[in-house]
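Example 5.3 — Reverse transcriptase domain-containing protein
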Amino acid sequence: MIQIGFAVEWVTLIMKCISTVSYTVNINGKRGDIFKPTRGLHQGDPLSPFLFLICSKGLSSLIIMSTVEGSMKRVKASRRGPEISHLLFADDCILFGEATHKGARI
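Solution (predicted structure tokens):
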């Protein structure tokens, strides 16, 4: 996020949100025990879609840069169709590339 222009203070705040999150479950109106996830944010967390959008913008820029430099090749779904390197949707990322040993290593 710093690479795409976010302030260090903001990135630090977001990292605190990710690394210090805790949850509790209400059952019949009574709050249960607090528990902490071991892997950061999960699907369904209100912050998750926003972080995906921010990080996917950075990832998308890196992929585009790789295709422009020639280290990663795009593919076509049809002869006259557009070249595709990646698709981002909701919280998923699909990468397309050359089906070779070199393409798999990149």
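Remark. The radius of gyration is 19 Å.
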